[in-house]
Automatic annotation (TrEMBL):
InterPro entries: HAD-like_sf, HAD-SF_hydro_IA, HAD_sf, Pyr-5-nucltdase, SSM1_domain
GO molecular function, one term: nucleotidase activity
Protein name as catalogued: Pyrimidine 5-nucleotidase
Organism: Malassezia brasiliensis
Gene Ontology biological process terms from the UniProt entry: nucleotide catabolic process; pyrimidine nucleobase metabolic process
Membrane spanning stretches: none
Superkingdom: Eukaryota
Amino acid sequence: MPGTVNGTEAWRAHVGFEPLATYADAHDAQAVLWLDIDNTLYSQVDTRIPELMADRIRDYFRGLGLDDHDAEQLHTHYYKEYGLAIRGLVKHHTIDPMDYDEKCDGSLPLERVLHPDPALRALLERIDRRRVRVYALTNAYKTHARRVLSLLQLDTVVQGIVYCDYNIDELYATRSPSSCKPEPAFYTAAQAAVHAAPDAHVYFVDDSMQNIVAARALGWQSCGTCHADPAVYFDELHPTDAPRTLDNGVVSVSSLQQLPRVWPGVFAP
Ligand SMILES: [Mg+2]
């Protein structure tokens, strides 16, 4: 990731960044830990947030005059074609991304379904912040990301948010856009946004296998002296007692409480 373009930090073309209350950049950190937010920091089974989100996105398509069948088809098509429904909506329907964010993520009843998990907070508090910085890496917009972290009472243990910025041109680029996971420039821009040192270890946990595979391809799997794999797949749908290695080589955990067994150097005992 080049440093600056015309005096502007180049990473801003690819990611949005929001420092939180305990923000410190990563220039002097030995490691950076990236946490996906949605369906990773809370249970998708208990909250049913993925279904609630899909309902709202389909309602949004219906609001554009599509019937139920077409709404469903187009939502799936845009998701497959562009990775994010919003890309197709802006491209083909010239919608206002902020209106979309307000009506979809913004209208989720998160206050009712999300509750703090003291054990998760305690786990993240065991990370030595002198050595390791902890940030969120999300494909949501910042409003939703902040809201979720606040409701989970994790907005003081997560130090900053790299998010998908619905307002940057790059998100809607016709050819190879690079502004959300799993697009490689999104990850490298995230590292640049927090000023991560080139030799810092990078850890990452996400409930999307394609996001993990992309991170590994970028080298977010070379962990210096540790033996474990730093890009870990979170899969609550297949509960296991311990982390396991899948056929593709990716390490999977079914509870974030298993992370210290994969990354013993990150968490204090
Ligand atoms: Mg997720």
